[in-house]
C-alpha cells in the first residue's frame, strides 16, 4: 500500500504557495483503505458516496449528509461509491498561517478545551450547499478569482461554522494550529481491539514497521504480535462468556481473517475451543 501525499497529488506547480486550495475529487470505483499523509488540514465536503477514516486514536464514517474537517497528519481512509456507482467530494485545503490569521481576527481568547479529536463532523445544510455551489463557480472560471477571493471564501465558511457550532468548533480550530503528537501508548491501546494490521498501526504512529517494533518492545517488553494476540484473545473470551455472541461474530473484530485461525489460537491459549466457553 503506497503512501499518498495529499494535497501534493492534486496541486500544480503554480498553486504550491497558495494558502487556500480547492479540489474536486470524483471517482467511479471503490478505493479500499489508502495510506494518506495529509500535509494540510482540510474540509472534505462529501456530496455523493461514503467516507471512512482511521486515525491513531479513533475512526469516523460519514455519508453525503455530513462532511469532515480533518487535521493534518497520517490517516487511513476508504472511499465508497453510492448506489449510482459515483463518489464525489469537494476538498478545501488551508494552511496553518491563514487559520492563525482568522483566529487572531475573529476569536478573542481560546474557548475551554474539550477532548481533542483529529476530525470535526459537519452536518450538511442549505447554506453549505450554496457555499459549495459558489466554490464550483471558482473551479469553472479560475482566472476570474484571486487568492484574496479564496481567502474570503475560507473566512466565510469558518464564520458560518463558528456561528453554527459555537465554542466546540472554535476550540477544534485552535487544536489545528497546536503541535501535538499522539502518545505512542495511546495509539496502541486505542487500536488493541481493532482489526488493523501491525503495519497499519505503525503508520498511524508515524513510524516504519521496524521502528514501530523496536519502540513497542521498549515500551511493553514483548513483541507487538504476541501482545496484541494475548489482549485480543482475552477480550474474545470475555465477549463469549457474556453469552450474546458467537466466535463467528467476533473473529474479524479480533484481527483474524478466518474463523479457523481464530479457533486454533483460542484453543492454544485457553485449552478449549470458543464453542466450549
From TrEMBL:
Transmembrane segments: none annotated. InterPro entries: ExsA-like_N, Homeodomain-like_sf, HTH_AraC. One of its GO terms (molecular function) is DNA-binding transcription factor activity. Keywords: DNA-binding, Transcription, Transcription regulation. This is AraC family transcriptional regulator. Residues 182-277 form the HTH araC/xylS-type domain. The lineage of its organism: Bacteria, Pseudomonadati, Bacteroidota, Cytophagia, Cytophagales.
